[in-house]
C-alpha cells in the first residue's frame, strides 16, 4: 500500500478513537487487516429517526490512491433508506464521489453518513423503490424503515403485523430476506408480493 | 434524396408553405433544409491547428487587454463560454466578481497562511515551509500532495475543473499552477490534450466532427475507436451492437437481409438536370470507394489480429497448453479471414463497373451474403478463445463457401476467356 495512504489511515484511526463521538458511542472504527486497507465502521441510528436504537455496520475499503480518491464504503447491515441500495448496501453520497476532497477524513465521512440517515435525499436516490415510497407515503416508509432497523440492526421497535406477514411468506418456502424486500416494495400487501415472487 | 439535390428546388419555396401536418410526406423534400430541419445549420470543418489558433486568439486578446496571464485567461474563458467581450466588459466593471465567478478567487476572505502550515493536512508530513503551495483560497498543502492530486485527477480525465484539495473549497487550479507541480512528460501531455478537448466542448461555436474516424457510438454518443477489422462493432460503454458501415443496429444485419454493400440509385435521377446527374455519378463513385477503403483499413487491422494471434498461440505452446497443431485452427481462421476480406474489398470496384441488370443484382446479393458472413467470422475470430471451436470452424466453412461461389460465378468468365486466348 502506498506510503501516504497507510500513514493517513493510521492518523485518522487515532483521530476517530480520540473523538468525542466514539466516547459518546455514536461511531466506532475497527481494523480488519494489518495492511490498513480494510476497516469496519459502525454508526448508531440517529435519534428521532426510524433508525434510532439500531447499530449499522459499514465496510470501508481504502484505495491505493487514498486520500486523493475517496474510500469505498457500503452498508453491511441491511437498511431501508432512499440513498442506500436495499440489496447491495451501496451508498449514494456526494462526498464519496465527485465531491470528495483529499482533506476529508474517515471521521467526517462517518459523520456524513450518519447525517444522511437523518436527512435523506429522495431526489438523488440509490434505491428508486425506497425513494418512491419515501416521497409518496412517508408514514409507511417510516414503519418499514423501523421494521428493518429492528430486524437487521437491533432496533427496539417491533412491528408484529410486518413480522407476521413475513412469516406467511416464509411458510410458503420463500427466503426471509427476499420476502421482506418484496413486502416492503409492494406496500406490505401479501397478494402483490407473492404475485411478484412467483411471476 | 441527398441534400444537394434539394437545392434544385430551392427557388420554389419563397412562399413559405407550412407543410407540417398538411401535406403528404413525399413533398417534404421540396422544402429548404434550413426551414424544414431544425437541426440543419451551416458549418466549416477545421483542422486541429486551426482550432488551436482560434482559441489562442481569444486567449491572447483577453490576456493583453486585461493584463492577466494566459493561464488565467483560459480559466475565465472556460467559465464564460469563450465570450471574451463579455469578460472584458464585466472585468472593467468588477474584476473581483469575474474572478469569483470563474472560481479562481474565493468569495470569503483568504485564510491566514501561517496557521495552516504546521503540517500538511493531506499526508500529515511536515516538510519545510517553502515546500508548500496554495491557490488563491490560501489552503496550503505540500507540493508532493499537489502533484499526487493532479496525477490522480489527470488520469481520470479531469483537466479544467480540478479543484483545491480542501473540504468544500470549489476553487479551480489554473493551468500554470497544475503544470508547475506535474513533472512527468506523459501526464503533462495528457493534461493538455484534455484541456484542449474541454475547451472545444465548452466553446459554443465548436463541435467535434461526428463523421467517420471521429465516430461516436450511435446510441450513447461516447467516443469509440475501431480497434479491429470486424465491422460488427460493440460499444465498450453501453454494449450497443452496431454496423460500422451504416451505423445501424447490428440486429438488422444478423438474420435479415444484409444490404450495406449495395448502392441504391436514385429512381428520380433521369428527370433531373445534368448537374444532378454528375452529382449522382460522384455519389455512386464515393459509395463504392468508401466501402473499398473501409475494407482496406479492416484488412490492415486483420493483419494485426493475425500477428497477435500468432504470439498468443506461441505463448500457449510454450506454457505447455497443447501443441501448435491444437491451436492451428485459430491461425487458419485468421488467415482465411484475411483472404475473404481481400476478396470482398475488390468486389466493390467490380460492382462499380458492372452494368445495371439482373447480373449485377445477383452479384450484389452474393456480395452482401459474403459480407455478412465475413463480419460474423471476424467477430468470432477476434473472440476466438472464448468461441466454441466447432462454431468457429463452421463459420470458416460458410465464409469460404460464399467466397468461392461468388468467385466461381463471376471470376470464371474472365479466367476462361483469358486462358482460351492464350491457346
Give an account of the 3D structure.
Chain B: Pfam families: Ariadne (PF19422), IBR_1 (PF22191), UBA_ARIH2_N (PF26000). Chain B: It comes from Spodoptera littoralis. Chain B: Its EC number is 2.3.2.31. The complex is a heterodimer of chains A (199) and B (423). With 199 residues, chain A is an alpha+beta fold. Chain A has 8 helices and 4 strands; from the N terminus they run ααββββαααααα. Chain A has a 4-stranded antiparallel β-sheet. In chain A, β1 and β2 form a beta hairpin. In chain A, α4 (128-136) packs across α5, α6 (160-171) packs across α7 (176-185) and α7 packs across α8 (190-198). The longest helix of chain A has 16 residues, at 3-18. Chain B is mostly helical and 423 residues long. Chain B folds into 4 domains: 1-43, no CATH class; 48-101; 113-202, Zinc/RING finger domain, C3HC4 (zinc finger) (Herpes Virus-1, 2-Layer Sandwich); 284-422, Four Helix Bundle (Hemerythrin (Met), subunit A), CATH 1.20.120. Chain B contains 14 helices and 4 strands. The two termini of chain B are 50 Å apart. The chains are: A alpha+beta (199), B mainly alpha (423). At the A-B interface, α1 of A face α7 of B.
